[in-house]
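In this section we walk through a basic example: taking a raw amino acid sequence and producing a predicted 3D structure, encoded as discrete structure tokens. The instruction is simple. Fold the sequence below.
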Amino acid sequence: MKRREVIKNLSILPAAGVIAGSVIPFGCVNSENAAPKRDFFEELGVTKKINAGGTMTYLSGSLMRPETVAAINATCHDFANMYELQDKAGAKIAEMLKCEAAMVTSGAAGALVLGTAACITGTNKELIEQLPLPSGPQREVIIQKKHRYVFDQSVRNTGVKLVEVENAEEMEKAINSNTVMALFFNGAISWFGGTDSISHEEFVAIAKRHNIPTFIDAAADVPPVENLFRFQKIGFDLVTFSGGKMICGPQSAGLLFGRKDLIEAAKLNNSPNECPIGRPMKVNKEEIFGMYAALKSYIERDHEKELQEWLDRINHITATLETISTVKCETIMNPGPANAFPTMKVSWDQKKVKIKGEDVTKALDSGTPSIVAGGRGNSLNLGVVLLRPDQVNIVARRVKEILEQAV
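The resulting token sequence is shown next.
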């Protein structure tokens, strides 16, 4: 039986929960009595981690802020029409981002798929149903050779061919009737070093001359908060940010925003529509509400105060560790564009402190509590922005213990 027939036939069933005159609990409805508190980490045998590294997906990104959790908890008890919710949440998010339109996606990777799909199909129902093998010649997406990266597979999932260019002149020549989009990876400098072969402004200008939509992947590129607005001002047609990094929304959520016609096309390529390429990339109602709350919180909070709190954490850890002979701590201000927040580097004289950074990392990870950091040679890199306040001293004390044992 098809899904629509199942839904239609629900009307002939007995009233929900009524069987043979008895009332039974229906589905997932919550009981009035709160369930006993359970430690699901312990129940499943999963090790809790203190993240002194970064916003890595394998570590579940970042921790959601209380506002986000409150939004999720407040909305999990009722149903919603997902078309209406995506439209209305998107409209509010677009207001906050000062852009034409927006939507919540299954992370920035999901946004890359949907944004590319939108550029291929527009609102053409046949093309939407045909992806990733639409009729006609293979569609092409322009990308700087220096910008090729692991996540461009999300773009290639739509069936396009990536055409690499090394400079503005090559970009002009590469655009043809099969070109549907031009992709800019904003984090390329952070990942690979060097400079972009084509600047943001020139990249957009060339594409606009040929009426080709531009899409910038800026997944990890807040802070600063200004980046949420910067790229649309430059003229990019589509922008994506991860929701589960420094915005501190749900790890499985992201933002896609920009030109209204393209966002509407992206929605048609997405769940809850039943046939399109984005059907497996569902975002549930709680994640949409949570992403809305997280973005609102991120935009409104005092970013200067937050930066100072991070620096205070580094100062506290520094004061603890520099009591050990030859140990020095340095504050590293990452210039971005990706992960532009402070971290710290701890180094030592291996003749005095006889341990390698790799071994410090292993000891931290295998200890209780388990702490994730990165070490090499005679140094250790510690991230502080993802620590809970109560974890700062735990990290400082544990690193000190390991280094002191090696003296």
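Looking at the output, two observations stand out. The first helix runs from residue 3 to 9. Residues 1-32 have pLDDT under 50 and may be disordered. In the next section we compare this with other chains.
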